[in-house]
Design goal:
Layout: H1 7-11, H2 38-62
Length: about 60
């Protein structure tokens, strides 16, 4: 199972808590997702599939 270690993702808190002001580094310091894990790859494919469906639906509504 995939677990997030950052409480900001759950609470919607987007302010940087490490003193950096608005830098593009969104990954937490303890980023430890195994990108070679088959479960991670399946999750990525599922997320991409849903995103593509969302984009297609959004495009169909515009036209």
């Amino acid at each position: 199972t995939l677990q997030r270690k950052t409480p900001g993702a759950m609470t919607g808190n987007t302010k940087p808590s490490d003193g950096h002001d608005g830098k593009k580094n969104n990954a937490p310091q303890d980023f430890d997702i195994d990108m070679d894990d088959p479960e991670t790859q399946r999750a990525a494919v599922a997320i991409q599939s849903q995103f593509r469906k969302f984009q297609k639906k959004k495009q169909d509504v515009k036209s």
